[in-house]
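Quick entry, no commentary yet.
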Amino acid sequence: MPADAPRSAEALVEAARRRRRLERALPWLVIAGMFVAWEILVRALSIQPFILPAPTLIAESMGKWWQPLLTNAWATLVTTVIGFLMAVVFGLALGVAIGSSVLVYRGLYPLLIAFNSVPKVAVVPILVIWFGAGFWPAVLTAFLISFFPIVVNVATGIATVEPELRDVLRALGAKPRDIITKVGLPRAMPYFFASLKVAITVAFVGSIISETVAANEGIGHLMLVASSRFDVPLVFAGLIVTGVMGVAMYWVAVTIEERTTGWATRGQNDPRLATGG
């Protein structure tokens, strides 16, 4: 082995570490660059605050209205998380049923597609009639809008188990339940967590849609009141707070995914494989 081989390996590892440090810092650099460019654009073009407020003006509004923002953000977060957790439970159960049974798939999938095609904002008035304005319409809208991605991904993960593998397991005496629990569900976990990262972001969309239609609290309600007063900086402050909550929940889903299904992406965490373009 050449004498410089250990040095080359160490250089590759060090390059991989530098790349990972850049990857961790890159999102923050991009966000900071976006706000700087935004500020420069607004000032250079003299855009009025009621059209597009500068980030400094939005930050000033956030400082001024921090308490209503915090209170309403908490209300939105609670309704979103509850609706999302309901979607996880029911979506996982229905996804397993659809992915493991052709009859269930044939019977329910067209109905699910049709229901998912209905704009959820059109469902909110019905939910208000049934449950009244406020908490439950927001929860159920978050549930309805985040339910479908989970069902589809879990069903796909279970249904794509190779037929040859199923035949071998049956020949070895495995029951259909054993195939689902010991092969199908582990196989579906990467699909499941991929759906969670989509579902948690759209769940906020559902909550805020309901809050803008029929609620007396929440970020959607706050933005509606602010827009009626033409307080555009506060509207943008609500958008930024919602984005921060969405990123935080996405990070929670990614952290759980890394701790439970790290085997599915173990090659990506090897520093010796992280030096490519």
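second:
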Amino acid sequence: MALGPLRALPPAVLATAALAAGCGGPPAATAPAHAAAAPDDAAATRAPEYAREDAAWGKFHSKRFQATIPLPDGRAWKIDDHRGPELVAVHAPTDSRLTLVATQEDELMNRQRCEERARARGWVTKPTLSTVEDQVTVGPDAYDSRVWVAVDAAGEGGALEGHVFLFGAFLRRCLLVHLSTRVPSTKDDEVLASRLAVASARIVKAIAIDPLRTTDDASVPRDKPDIRR
């Protein structure tokens, strides 16, 4: 795992990146240590975080892309898995957007070629992204993947935006995932750091791929997530 240029990143984001590097992966979402002591009015104006350990999570299964995605605050996500070439899930309370697509290719793929597919789709266009974490991993399942976490501090109106990308390859398939989330300003950098930790460890890296069906009666995921579209 490599940490990229850090000088332009908010201190809280850097702390999350350092912790992730030392532990082998980002931690589950936890409140900053000093949050409990913050004044009530300050807490009320903080940007919302993702769900806590004890909060409701949902799972969405995409039959089209044969993948199951865990989502914090599951009921609040609006998901479109039919109208476009990609699955798109939007969480309005945190200004978050998850995009997923699995492609069938004509040649054997690797993570670099799959990343090229993502860039060709226009997924990585901003020159102002600063790397927080860059990891090569195996997963989901047997996919050879790159997980890239980055921050864009040049958002419109002073907004701070975080991104988690997964570029995965398995035989002749690519799995591409992009989760973006935004906070109003650098004052909410700790909230953004918390979201990115959850997004990387518990959403993107936790996506499950359907088992290969070798017979017509092979089982497929049947759980119907309670998530509205």
